[in-house]
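name: query_chain
kind: protein
chains: 1
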Amino acid sequence: MRCMLTLFISLLLLSGCQQSSEPPPEALASIPWVKTVVLKAADPAAQRFSGTLRGRHEVPQAFQIAGRIQQRFIDPGQRVEKGRLLFKLDTRDLVATAEGAAADLRRAEAALAIATDELQRQQQLVGRQFVSEQTLQRLELAEREARSQVETASARNQQAQNALGYAELKAANAGVVTEVIVEPGQVVGVGQTLAVLAEDQSLEVEVFLPEGSNPPERGYLPLPNGEQLAVSLKEIAGAADPRSRSWRARYSLEGPYPSSLTLGSVVSVRLSQKQTASSHRVPLGALDERGQAPQIWLISDGTVKPLAVEVIDLGEEYAQIKADINVGTLIVALGTHLLTPGMAVRELTQ
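structure:
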């Protein structure tokens, strides 16, 4: 009987100890539930810019001679093949000049033929001592002068023929006409830009970067189908634009290019900035703005504590922060507005 009484008392004491180790139901209900997430390292920050598709080689088209434009054979946006006729000048003056140069050449050749015949005849007479040496030297000099006149007339005739050929401006390479500046009837000078021909086999994106920014070396161009085209920095202007104070940069696209990319179209590019310090990516709900600085909440042994952070970038769903914390740390992702330092929380099952 005494043994049974002792056993009964021991069971009562053990039951009381177990009940005292668990919080009462009303205390457990006051501990809030929070959603948590494991801290991850952030990808390199990518800035978004609007750019214009350009050809790697954009060549201004111009005549080598001056004249009046007679015909125009191209329109802006038109693709042309190598050797395609672009413009033609009025050739009436050029034809007259070429005919005059040809006539001068024929006259010089006739004078040379007469001087040569006279020299040969006098050389025969010199052998018979009918003509003095001085007379022969004078004839030789006249023959050399006539030959020099032929060479000069021939060069002028060649220049006139070349000018006649320059009256037709043809495409040196295949490409797309991005701009036409002149119209038929307009008088143009030597080297004056008439149109711009861009080779569309190699595309580049032209963007304007803010003053003081370091141009990223690489980035990508998102396509409507979800794919991405890599871009890399090709050149940067040597000085800022005096009006906008922005810096012109060109990024080359790595082909092949889809048909949706056409010269002159406006595209959106993402340029990856080089990170100077480690950063982390957190959901926007993990940021708490109630303090003097943005902060996140760390979870340790069922309680939370705040940690001040520096916000680098804000996106639609995530924020990029910089803080002295290791990747893999458990933080509160939702419900930070209810937390206080040292508060006990319950982790919501994912």
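note: The helical segments are 2-21, 25-29, 92-127, 133-166.
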